Amino acid sequence: MNRGRLWVVSAPSGAGKTSLVHELMRREPRLRFSISYTTRPPRQGEVDGQDYLFVDEARFVAMIEAGEFLEHAQVFGNRYGTARGQVERELADGHDVLLEIDWQGAAQVREMMPEGRSIFILPPSREELERRLRGRGTDSEAVIERRLREAHAELLQWSGFDYAVINDDFDQALGELQRIIHGDGEALSATRPQVRQLAEQLLADTPE
Question: Mean pLDDT, consecutive 10-residue segments, the chain of 208 residues?
Fold first, then answer.
């Protein structure tokens, strides 16, 4: 049996990554989604074991010490991590696996599993990024402002990814994600001029 392929998807908070990934998984049943562990409390509508595996700080730290994570990071005061064993089992069984993680985790995965491929999702503008963050209706003004500041550090990472998708039109962005995982993503390289130009503009518009 051929070993499966590993796909890593990252984006600044508010770029629309989660909505795209959920629809991608619905349309591509051969993909396996690796559910992340997190110490943050569930948001309204989130289900333990489906959206995240919710654990407390002590359990998460114990998993780090036991070497159970493929990657882990602290984001906005909460911990997130991907269980190594879960991913390895799926890949060994010939399944393609998708990780939806932040750029810090993506960098760790590139080091641990360099055969994996990574996709960065960008918002079309700073204004749209802020609109989406506010549209969630779940974060305080202070949290929104912090996420906008953090977006600058996240956007700086775009060139370290293999592919990039600009989430301006949802259906088009979804189609591009499907092209990439089907092996037809040559034209969607993260280093193409369109992405470089947008990234530079977003960085100029987003405070450090």
Answer: 92 89 93 94 89 95 96 89 94 94 90 94 89 75 80 89 96 97 95 94 80
Detail the residues annotated as belonging to a binding site: 11-18
Domain 6-205 falls under CATH 2.60.40.10: no
Give the pLDDT score at 197. 94
Task: Write down the domain spans for the chain.
Answer: 6-205
DSSP codes of every residue in 52-97 = BEE--HHHHHHHHHTT-EEEEEEETTEEEEEEHHHHHHHHHTT-EE
Q: What is the pLDDT of residue 153?
A: 85
**Binding-site residue set for ATP:** 11-18
How far is Cα 134 from Cα 143, in angstroms, rounded to an integer?
A: 10
Q: Is the pTM of this model over 0.85?
A: yes
Phi, psi dihedral angles at 115 (to 5 degrees):
-75, -15
Write out the two tokens for 18. 């989660």
Ranges of beta strands (E only) in the chain are 6-10, 31-33, 37-38, 53-54, 69-75, 78-83, 96-100, 117-122, 163-166
